Fold:
Amino acid sequence: MTRSVAVLGAGIVGISCALHLAKRGFRVTLVDRREPGSETSFGNSGVVGRASIAPLSQPALWKKLPRYAANRDRAVRFGPGYPARELGWFVRFLANSRPGAFDANVRHLNALLSHALDEHQALLAGDSGLLRRDGWLQLFRTESGFEASAGTRALWYRHGVRFRILDRDGLRELEPHLGPVFRRAIWLTDIASVADPAQVCRVLAERFAAEGGNVLRTEARSVAATGTGVRIGLDDGELHADEAVVALGPWSTDLLAPLGYRLPVIRERGYHLHLAPRHNEPLGRPCLDAEGAYVVSPMKAGLRLTTGIEFSAPDAPPTPVQLESVLPLAREAFPAGGEVESKPWLGARPGTPDSLPVIGRAPRHPNLWFAFGHASIGFALGPATGRLIAQMMSGESPLVDPYPYAATRFRAFGFGR
Structure:
């Protein structure tokens, strides 16, 4: 008999898991309180590729800690009392900056990210126009800023990430409408991007439905093991399945806590705002202003300006300080006009202390699977995660060694007892 699976969460990770499982003959129900791609997957820079193989916690972090702790750096902002609220997470985060841990985390991120673009292309076959193959740019306002990227460039070189270094003339030729504020640039040539991440999610959800998948628009309130499978408590009843995949992004740990899973996954908040592009002055690819700590991506809705990370309580009111601080920088550097929206988008991303997602079977519940914790690279890694989960659940040889992403790596947080 065909096994039934409930996939909880219709962001790109959950949709990809559901689609890959449906392609393998599972009877799949995709559950989410909102339309596919409406939450975390909606707000990102749309970048797909291997640019992000360096974890957030790295040896150079220690030099930046005083600026971060004092909220004097646009890349990171702390809400009142937040580090103390999640002290265990931050201690483990800092421990991952040790060279040995950092190198291992780079290898494991690279293993997944090296499949990101191919897996997007495979799921979007026939809609390849959704993926733009123009690369992306990291821009530097000063020579000292460019020199500070030497460690990252060396890391890319060692792992075969292709890039070109551009001077002012080379940058002007590639992006003629940028303001004259940047002295150097790194063009990562093998990176793709999309003009509408939510549209990609909708396309994949339609393909899932075409494979016979079922979509339930309701909220998963609880999950419990039964004698033969799992029972999911919904807003409007119950759903029974042989197995379940939890892919609820930053809300996954709320659902799993009653089962005794104390996973170190926190919500990293981020903001974005669209600026109207100036007439006949297009931007060709996503751009990171490395010293400004923001990204501008050409999207259907306009030039999407995305901020760094805000560590705040989940119920804290919006504090778009980072966005307000980078708006003047973006306006002087990019061909941008007025703001498209009346207020910025605010979303949350699930972050782990080692920057690796949590993928694999639940340690104490064999019919339960985890697929979350991707932080800011969830959009890039959704299709690869979906394939890996489906391969593990169907007994196929996995795309990559799944061990580094297993939840059991967090034994210090209560696993294996």
Observations:
- The chain has a mean pLDDT of 95.
- The chain is about 30% helix and 25% strand.
